[in-house]
Amino acid sequence: MLLTHAGHGSGGGLDLAALLASVGLGLFHGVNPAMGWLFALSFGLQEKSRRAILRSLAWIVVGHEASVLPSALVITLFAGQVTRSVAMGVVSAALLAFGLVLLLRPRHFRWVGMRLRPWQLAWWSFLMSTVTGAGLMLAPVLLHTTSSHEHSVAGALSGDLTSAAVVALVHALGMALAAGTVALLVYQTVGVRILRTHWVNLDRVWAFAFVVAGLGVAAAWIGLG
Amino acid sequence: MARTWKPDPTFYPSPELAAEAPPERHAFVATFWRGEGEPNKDALAVVSVDPEADDYGQVVGWCEMPNYGDELHHHGWNACSSALCPNNPHPHVERRYLLMMGLRSSRIHFVDVKDDPRNPRIAKIIEPEEYKAKSGYSRPHTAHCGPEGIYITNLGAAEGDEGPGGIALLDHDTFEVKGTWEKDRGPQYLAYDFWWHINHDRLIASEWGTPRQIENGVHVEDLLAGRYGHTVHIFDLATRKHLQALDLGPQYQMALELRPAHDPDQQYGFIGVVLSLEDLSASIWCWRREGDGDFTISKVFDIPAEPVAEEDVDRLPEILRPFKAVPPLVTDIDLSVDDRFLYVSCFGTGRALQLDVSDPMHPVKVGEVQLGGIMARASHPAAPDLPLLGAPQMVELSRDGKRVYWTNSLYGAWDDDFYPEGVGAWMALAHVDTENGGMRLDERFFPHGADFRGNRVHQTHLEGGDASSDSYCFS
């Protein structure tokens, strides 16, 4: 049962809250034009086809997941090997540090080509997701789903990793849903004019989100102490 | 560099949307001192182009460069509509700095024109030593904002007065020089202009000559031997490697300005050739590519030289007397954002042409004005008694295609070859009939002479972008 907690530690397990949080982060990532839907849209416009949008998005999601899934597994493995207090401290510090780096060093990710083969598009998406810390952003959710190390017997660990994989997949689903919906809406009805007027600086919002998440974990950590 | 919450409102995803841009209120003009009279500093002049303003057509602001002798020439924006492109999306930077490049000094000034366009301020300077050491080049010419940062072509190698010229890359966040752009320059040795088909990852570069061939005026020996540039080079914009050289033939000297179609789906564009050694004509060529194939190039428009009667030959500058004719000397061209009209400047005869290039392979002349010219010295309707020297040279066009601006200086040493009495300084504006073609000079707009403080005027860019400043990724 995915929705029941696999371990018996102090983690909250893979409950509805964790799933919603994963999907939400995916939606957040997906609506950002810089994360791929704009690329997919441009292929759609070039080829004058909706299918080109969806085909490109599929590769973008694959690349995104290739970044997020290993990150989720590593974070879970780490959290399973240390005390909850250490895990929360490290995650909080990492989120805060990453958020501040994104805020204070606003250099965007550079990729020079426009004519990309599918695997290159997936690679672009992988790099983009990695440098923006998509996997790290899942850390608070993963802390929630991971057992503390006192109980990390093999079975519990395996359950935690399964939960982590589900979190990563559900996250990608949210990302695909948001990106696909926006790309198709812009293609069908809204038009690229929206880029001028409604493209909020989501990169900066994303950076702030790291800081807020870091502070949240820190607060919980202090509360734990 | 500060980031904004919403995209810079002067960025447009497509050429069609750019044509809806509000009219410019200010024109930014590069002016330079040509070593005559009291030393004067090169400066960015701000000209009011708002027809509702009381000071319409007047120079309303100045920003002087701190040194002497830079010879400001072309300039370019730090950021443009290419920031909306999906492979490098960063639309929360601002179009606010003009890169004013000293073609003679190799010094680059970043001038902030955003908050107070009538009072531009120098925000940063890259000194020549640093620029040469980091870029591998000297004599920076044209700048474009693009996928990897700010790209600048250069006429010469870092040291000395020879080539190879090529492209340098600057970081568009820090404005640091990142280095030489080319990973493989192939056979290219001479450099001049460049632009790209951004959605197809293809960069196009053209050729003028080395600093030695240029800085002391036309090098007649090299010209007659066909040693100025006559080849167009195609690079892979992503891998920075040379792919193709399209040779126009050595009789076609100085293959200069490149104007790719603005529609990002298209892969064709125009190049102006200054001179044919066979008959002194100038010409327009069109390059094209079908799908993923090779590029081809062909001549699509000829502009013949104008013969000069025997009794008038003495009025010609020395360099032209043996030929008894005035060459058109097409030194600049500009393509409207809707890819419909190509504007062609003839620096020799003083004619400014408007070609309908809806069918790129068969341009049709639909408009013409004449100002200055080696023999004609045609006056402006605002000052009918004032014979003009120089000619329509750099041509700039508003995003909506309705206003076309000219300035009258080519390059100090070359002005002097063709206009030994000097070119003075003037700027003109014509309104365009965008339906049927045709241009009408604006009698209210004619800043000239002392308005420019004794400096010559070279290139204009328009507030918020213009027909030669932006690349678009969506059609």
pLDDT averaged over residues of chain A: 89
Q: What global shape of chain B is seen? A: globular
Task: Determine the N-to-C terminus distance of chain B.
Answer: 30 Å
Strand content of chain A: under 5%
Helix and strand composition category of chain A: mainly alpha
> What does the largest sheet of chain A look like?
none
Name the assembly state: heterodimer
Helix % of chain B is under 10%
Give the CA-based shape of chain A: globular
DSSP E strands of chain A, number: 0
Q: From the alpha carbons, calculate the radius of gyration of chain A and give it in angstroms.
A: 18 Å
Helix content of chain A: over 70%
**In order across it, which strands form the biggest sheet of chain B?**
3-2-1-30
Number of H- or I-type helical stretches of chain A: 10
Coarse structural class of chain B:
mainly beta
Q: What descriptors fit this protein?
A:
heterodimer; A: 225 residues; mainly alpha; 0% strand; disordered N terminus; B: 475 residues; mainly beta; 4-stranded antiparallel β-sheet; 6% helix
